[in-house]
Structures are given as C-alpha cells and as structure tokens.
Amino acid sequence: MNFREIDFVKNRKKFFSLSIAITVLGLIALLIFNLNYGVDFTSGTTLDVLIDENSTTKEKAEQIYQETGIEPSTITVGGDNNNRVNARFEKVLSEDERIGIISAFQNEFGAEQVSYEENTVDAEIAKELGLKAIYAVAIASIGIIIYVSIRFEWRFALTAVVALLHDAFIVISLFSIFQLEVNLPFVAAVLTIIGYSINDTIVIFDRIRENLQKFKIKNFDDLANMVNTSIKQTLTRSINTALTVVFAAFCLFIFGSESIKLFSLAMLIGLISGAYSSIFIASQLWLILKSKSLNKKKTDVINS
Amino acid sequence: MVHTKRLIAFLLIVITSIVIMVWTSPGIISNVKLGLDLKGGFEILYTAVPVDENQEMDQELLREAARSLQMRADAKGISEPEIYPEGEDRIRVRLAGVENQDEVRQIMKKPAELTFRSNNGCEDPSEFCKIELNGSDFVEGAADVVFKENTNEPLVSIQVKDKDKFKEVTQRLLNNGYRTQENILAIYLDNEIISLPFVGFVSTDGTATITGQETFEEAEELAGIINLGALPVVLTEKYTQSVGASLGELSLQQTITAGIIGFVLILIFMLGFYRVPGIIACVTLTVYTWMLLLVFYWMNATLTLPGIAAFVLGIGMAVDANIITYERIREEIRSGKSILSSLRAGSRNSLRTIMDANITTILAGLVLYYIGTGSIQGFALTLILSILVSIITNVFLSRLLLHLLIRANIAKKPAYYGVKEAEISEL
C-alpha cells in the first residue's frame, strides 16, 4: 500500500494552506451572499406539494400560483418525475390562502393526487430557533473540550475543537457558496458532524497518546516521526470508517426522501471533511503545539 | 485441532439470534410508532392569550387550555395525541395520522365553547337543544371545588354574573319537577356532554353548587372546564409543520430503501475487507438494527424522518467499533503474534478508544436533544440510542463471537483476517 509511504507531517503546510484557502473563500462567500436561510430562521411558509403520478413544469406551477393571486418568492420543481412543487413565501400563509392554493392544485391534477407538506414559522419563533442553534453548537463544543481535557490533555482538546469547527465551517461555507437552503435539520447535520469529527479525531489522538509513552522523543523530528507513525497505524481505520459512513450518507442523499436531501448532503460533506481534518489538521496542529513544550523543556535543561 | 464445543456455541448464538430476529421483526416493525412526518399529521405550536385583556396568563390557565385541546383531539378519535404546555404561554400539539387535517386544525384553534342547556321547547325531549347559559355568563375563574358539610362530598361551586337571569333559569327548571328530564341543566363543552346535573333549588344570589362528583379529581376537572369555558384563550399558530399522509408514506418508503441499500453496501464492504471478522460484523450489524428497533418499540419512542437518517448513519458509526477492533487485531497479527494473543491484545487496546470516541458523540447528541424540538429531538434520540445499542452489539457481542470463533481453532490463517503473509514481521 503506497499511502504508507506518504509523509503526512512534511506536507502539513500544504494541507494548512488548503484549509485556510477554503475558509477564506467561505468567509468571503458568507460576507457577500450570506446563507440562504429557510423559513425556520426567517419566518414565513414553505409549501411542498406532491402531485403523485402527474408531472409538471416550473412554468405551469408558476401559472397555478398566479391564478390564486398568492405568489411565492421562490418556486422549485423536483421529485422523481417532476411531481413535487416546493414554494417558499416570505410571509406567513393564512389558512384561507393555503386552502386556496391546495384546491387550485386539486382542480388541476385531481383531489386524490395532491398531498402536501406545510411549514410555517412565525418571526418570534424564527429568532428563537436561530439563537438555540448557536447555543447548541457552543454548548456541544464546550462539553467536548471539557471531556477531552479531562481524558487527554488541553492540547488535544484545543486542536480537536479547531478541527471540528473547521469541519462545521466548511459545510457552512459550501452551503453559502451554492446558496443551499439552511433550515433546522441543517443544524442537526452540523451537530452530528461535530460529533463524528471529534469521534474520528479521538481515535488518532488515542494512538498518539499511546505512542507518546512507547517512543523516545528528544527533538522535533522524533515527535514528527511519532505523529506520522500514529497516523499511518490508524489510517486504514480512518479510511474504512469514513467509507462506511459515507456509504450511508450517500445512499440517503441519492435514494432518500426529498425532505432530507439537503440534510444528507450537509452530512456527506461534513463526514468527508471530518475524516480529512483529523489527519491533516488536528494531528498536525497538535504536533506544533506539543513541539513548543519540547523546546521549552530543552532550554530548561540547558539553563539548569 | 478444532474445538467443537466453542464452534457449536458460536453457531448456536448466531442461529438463535437469527431465529429470534426473523420471528419478532414483523411484529416490532409494524408496532414502532411513526412520527407525523412519516404517516401524515401536524405539529403546531400555539401561543395562548386570554380573551379578556385584564386577565393574566398563568400556568393553571395554560394547563386547562391544553386539557381542553386534548379533549377535542380525543373527541375527534385521533390516536395518541401529544399535547402539552410549554413555557409561559405556549401549547405544543402533535397529532399523527390525521386524515382531514384542515378540519381538525380549525377545531383545535376554536375557543372552547361552554354551554349550559335544557331540553325546554325541544322537539326531541331527550335532546338538550336550548342554550340557557354560555361561558361568558359565568364570573371568570370563580368555579371552584368545595366540600359539603358533614359528608365531605366534593362539590363544584359556580357563580353567574347575571343573578336575575340565573334565578329565572333555575326557577323555571325546578318548576318542571325535580329529577325529571325537564329539570336537567346539562353542561356541554362544544358538543360533548360533560355533566347532567338536576336543578334542586332556585338561586337568588347567582351562585350554585353542582353535586354528584365522585372524586376530588373529577370535581376539579369540571371546575376547570367551567373556568375555561368562561375564560377562553385565543390560540395563534406560531409554528406549523403539516405533512400529507401520502407524502409521509413516500418519505418513509424512499428513506427505508436508501437505508437498506446503505446497509447492504456496508455489509459487502466489511465482508470483502475483513473476511472472517467481517462475517461477525454482518451478524452484529443485523442484531444492532433489530435491537435498535426493539428499543424504539419498548420505549414507545417515535421514529421520525431525521430519526431514520440517524438510524442509517448509526449503522455506519456502529461498524466503526468493529473496524477499530479488527484493525487493532490485524496490527497485532502483523507484528508476529499468534491469532489468539492478537485477539486479546487487540480487544484490550481498542476498548478505551471506542468508549472515548463514543462518549464525545453522545455529548453532542444530548445537547441536540435538550435544545431541539420535534423532529430534531427524534434525530438526537436515535443518535444516542444507536450509540448505546452499538456498544452492546458491536463491541460486546462482536467480541464474544470473535473469541468463540478464534478459540474454536477453525480460522487460523492470517489471510482469513485480510492479512497477507508477507506483511507479518518476524518476532
């Protein structure tokens, strides 16, 4: 296996540059486009109409909405054979308006064919949900830092959290660049990514901790060699676990229901990033932090 | 030498598991409670505001309003409605499997209508068609539970605003003859009979007591209903998720298909990569899936669409425990150890890693559960349960099976573990 020949540590600057580049790109995208917040965070109504065995076009759907006199801010047509019309309204739809729209679809395609999903969020609740999402990420991160600090040491905790924030940010950046809709399930996806990212990092860190006792470490090269060995020893596991979760997320994305497509996509990106960051970000950052303490010890010795 | 006893024990565990799974699965699958996003229904978060501007919103009023919503859902024959007060002035309603959603939504929101009726002047004397008093005739919050002197029987005391009106009604009904059908002043909430008291005396001061309540709780409930009817709250929908039945069914079907494909892919991968331990991974993953469903069934937990997603991802994460252990064992084999001592060293060294890695994921799951609502909670719950179950199946069961198989001495070649002879270093 030729990947065992790779010197992960030597190339760390390249990986850092790559991650920094993506992060900067994401920041720019966020500043320019912001995120495409769905109704969960902006208030309003989404109406997802399924017309079962029929199919339709965007023009036709727009026409139906035009006739009802209630025009959504965006309309997308999707589903297996264009049988799903998703419309988003910036205001909260009233009961009469909703019934009006559904009966317009029923008139067009037959009452039995139409089934719909409605999500309505009031402005007050939208604000609350947004705040809760931020709290959730913050509390989860703090909890993880505390746990890892107790079980390992602060350097592991700090770098693991940098890696998980990196993963969360990459998903957020990509959703900003491609203007994919961000709703409550997206937050759940980000939190799961955080959970997975830390899980993945811990396995490598655990090995580093073990090797720290086995190896005689005198200088930076020894330390770098140890980190390299640890990564190589756990590499097959890292790849295989990433593969199995990616299989799962990929199947959900391709074959799963329309309403969890974006959720699965966020998950897919995050899982790949999580596997990447454990090896190329977390371990390398730890090496840099740890080598600082190594230098200090050495000077201590000389001084005494 | 092949150790037959251990081989038999191994086969026995595997075959028994398969038999139990095949036998119980249909029952479990058909009884797992599905969320409204999978079988249609809606979740609404209401804010409740008292109709009377001078009235303050309090916990008791909120609980009464929630109870009245519960009664409406029951009256509509909706199975297992979930209705509970939240915070200071909110009520969350979750109804799954609702066919006529628009109708139910309208009924839920309409303020409870309390009426006191008689059958005076009705065509059918068994019906109570004449509304004598309605909710607004009562003094707000005045209905209370009192106890009859001597007998300690619980009574509900009520107070009407218009003394003369109440006097006229009680006088007329009493004149019809005590304990006749015409004497009854029936209490209705919307169109449901709550109580059928007789009028025993003429009230001149606007107050009266209702007897016939068997327990204190019953009396308290009646007082609550009268107060609610007299004090209706206005409900406004603040958050709504409503899913049509056939749309929910489609989601369920698509996501389960996705799950099965993912599951099979993972099994094929594990078999191809790890060979003999791969077989054990397949068995334990199947047991994992079955056991997680069983836990859902036992806890009467609701499986939501994001919940299924967590279920499928959970399969990917559960197999991680197998992968960590197997990798460790392979490493030990490569270092030149015997299969058995590799197994021992590998199991010991990998347990700590697996636990640390899983606990951090559970931490994230717990935060999600406490902060999230609705389907997000469903996702978090599944994530947490899937990790707990996977520790049982993919750590402990997997180890037991691997030990039995290896110590049965039938899988001795390193190739059975996906290790090439050339990779093994000399000790």
TrEMBL record, chain A:
Organism for this UniProt entry: Chengkuizengella axinellae
Identify the keywords attached in UniProt to this record, alphabetized: Cell membrane, Membrane, Protein transport, Translocation, Transmembrane, Transmembrane helix, Transport
Q: How does it sit in the membrane?
A: Multi-pass membrane protein
Location relative to the cell: Cell membrane
Assembly information from the UniProt record: Forms a complex with SecD. Part of the essential Sec protein translocation apparatus which comprises SecA, SecYEG and auxiliary proteins SecDF. Other proteins may also be involved.
Q: Write down the superkingdom of origin.
A: Bacteria
Query: What is the recorded function of this protein according to its Swiss-Prot or TrEMBL entry?
Result: Part of the Sec protein translocase complex. Interacts with the SecYEG preprotein conducting channel. SecDF uses the proton motive force (PMF) to complete protein translocation after the ATP-dependent function of SecA.
Check the record and name the Pfam families matching this protein: Sec_GG, SecD_SecF_C
InterPro entries registered for this protein in UniProt: SecD/SecF_arch_bac (IPR022813), SecD/SecF_bac (IPR022645), SecD/SecF_CS (IPR022646), SecD_SecF_C (IPR048634), SecD_SecF_C_bact (IPR055344), SecF_bac (IPR005665)
Name of the protein in question: Protein-export membrane protein SecF
List the transmembrane segments.
15-37, 133-150, 157-178, 184-205, 239-256, 262-289
Residues annotated as domain Protein export membrane protein SecD/SecF C-terminal: 108-291
PANTHER family recorded: PROTEIN TRANSLOCASE SUBUNIT SECF, PROTEIN-EXPORT MEMBRANE PROTEIN SEC
Family membership: Belongs to the SecD/SecF family. SecF subfamily.
Please give the NCBIfam families that the UniProt record associates with this protein: 2A0604s01, transloc_SecF
